[in-house]
Design the sequence.
């Protein structure tokens, strides 16, 4: 890859040298701006025990614009829609070039611990969450068992 | 307030920072024209060197496709940025060693820009960001609000 900004090289090296606990991010061998990410479901959350695959792409303008991140593993979460798109302010209007791949992934991990049904991306899931939190959490747990268990080839 | 595209209208904004060193190195180049070309001139040739602006975060547009409001906003922004102090890294600031935008270490003599919240960046890095969002990347403080506070407390 020619012309890869030093910042991206540095971030990649630092991610490898000091990985974030519960998260792996590996650059694609053909495209250094594309990362294969796996986030472990946080403990005490309905996603506990699951391994969630995500894709992360650093657009041409990075770090002036936010990375594009998407869940590849199906997940039942009020702020993540069927296509895996994530409703997270720092990926949109609250992006700042002081943030990094590392901080973005930490925020996504935190979002799994603290779903926010008042700012939904998937209305059905959010309604479920608000009307019957316990049943929604059960459903999220079930989806974790079905879609996010160890078999990482299962999108 | 006109919508003229020339930057750094020093007269009206300089009161924000009193007796400050005017950074008149004209480092922010004014865009090469004042108005969008009339439609009959919309040939490919003038677009080649057209600067790209970001009237709001995530929006990128060549200068000739900006609305009048966007032109005003960008011209004002250029003026405000020009009033933020600049300097050169001399190695004495032990706290700020690295520009968080490019993640490179500051090197002696590199041009820096200081925001009112006291965060420091490479001039080139932060100017690029401030044209998109007038906030400090590190503390998210709106820069124009901080500029006004500086003025009021002086």
Sequence:
């Amino acid at each position: 890859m020619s012309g890869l900004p030093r910042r991206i090289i540095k971030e990649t090296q630092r991610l490898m040298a000091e990985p974030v606990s519960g998260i792996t991010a590996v650059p694609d061998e053909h495209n250094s701006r594309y990362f294969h990410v796996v986030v472990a479901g946080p403990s005490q959350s309905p996603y506990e025990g699951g391994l969630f695959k995500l894709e992360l792409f650093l657009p041409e303008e990075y770090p002036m614009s936010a990375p594009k991140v998407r869940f590849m593993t199906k997940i039942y979460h009020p702020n993540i829609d069927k296509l895996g798109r994530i409703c997270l302010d720092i990926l949109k209007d609250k992006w700042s070039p002081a943030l990094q791949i590392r901080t973005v992934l930490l925020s996504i991990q935190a979002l799994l611990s603290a779903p926010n049904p008042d700012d939904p991306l998937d209305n059905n899931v959010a309604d479920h969450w608000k009307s019957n939190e316990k049943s929604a959490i059960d459903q999220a747990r079930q989806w974790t068992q079905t879609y996010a268990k160890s078999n990482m080839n299962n999108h | 307030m006109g919508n003229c595209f020339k930057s750094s209208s020093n007269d009206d904004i300089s009161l924000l920072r009193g007796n400050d060193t005017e950074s008149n190195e004209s480092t922010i180049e004014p865009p090469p024209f004042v108005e969008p070309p009339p439609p009959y001139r919309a040939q490919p040739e003038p677009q080649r060197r057209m600067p790209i602006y970001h009237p709001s975060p995530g929006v990128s547009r060549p200068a000739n496709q900006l609305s009048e409001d966007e032109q005003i906003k960008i011209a004002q922004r250029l003026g405000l940025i020009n009033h933020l102090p600049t300097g050169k890294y001399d190695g004495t600031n032990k706290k700020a060693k690295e520009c968080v935008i490019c993640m490179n270490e500051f090197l002696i003599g590199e041009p820096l820009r200081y925001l009112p919240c006291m965060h420091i960046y490479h001039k080139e890095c932060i100017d690029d960001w401030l044209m998109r969002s007038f906030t400090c990347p590190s503390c998210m403080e709106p820069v124009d609000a901080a500029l006004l506070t500086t003025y009021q407390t002086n």
User: Anything to note?
Assistant: Chain B touches chain A at residues 57-58, 60, 100-104, 125, 128-129, 132-133, 135, 137-138, 140 (CB under 8 Å). Residues 1 and 57 of chain B are 24 Å apart (CA to CA).
